[in-house]
Amino acid sequence: MKGMAMTGIAAGIAALGASLGAHASMLMIYSNPGNEGLGSFTGSMEWVYPVDGSDCGQLTVTLTNTSEVANGGFLTGFGFQAIEGIEVTYVATGDGWSQLTDFSAAPYGTFDWGAALGGNFLGGGSPQAGIAVGETREFVFEVCADAALLAVLDADDFFEDDFGYGFVTRFKGFNDGGSDKVTGYVPAPGAVALLALAGLTQRRRRG
Fold this sequence. Notes:
Blueprint: H1 2-20, E1 23-31, E2 41-49, E3 57-65, E4 72-80, E5 87-90, E6 97-104, E7 110-117, E8 131-132, E9 136-144, H2 147-150, E10 167-174, E11 180-185, H3 191-206
Antiparallel strand pairs: 1-2, 1-11, 2-3, 3-9, 4-7, 4-8, 4-10, 5-9, 6-7, 10-11
Helix pairs in contact: 1-3
């Protein structure tokens, strides 16, 4: 149901963008199996250009921690790959998260941009300020570049997976003492509705 709802939101954003002369698009992201099999998430990347009062665009990354409740865990960092020629700045909100730039998320490679608690993808402090299981947070980035480039960008330009992975997350603070790194994937067209239906069926069975 969440996937279907978010698809409808994406369509609404696109329609609103067209009516305002703006360009807007959204990607849904789902997690692959984690490196340690502990963390999982769902999310989205929403792109809007232009933004009122700015010559730049705005990327909003929304993430929900869907890890198993019994083992807890916090999502404490994430990163993404983007096309060349842009400058990305995390719009900090005083929540303890800071920007990441050109950082390693081994074994999944190096990522262009992102945010993490304390500006450290691997983390070095308490994960309590991360995203807890069942919690959702938004992270806003200002994206600046030549106007001609900004005008043709889409959300999928911030998920460049041609040479590896387009998105990665970091989890810490599991009840069993473990941590995890989890990559994300974008479903093929039409697959989002099937994922949502599968999720609805699973929830009914649990009920």
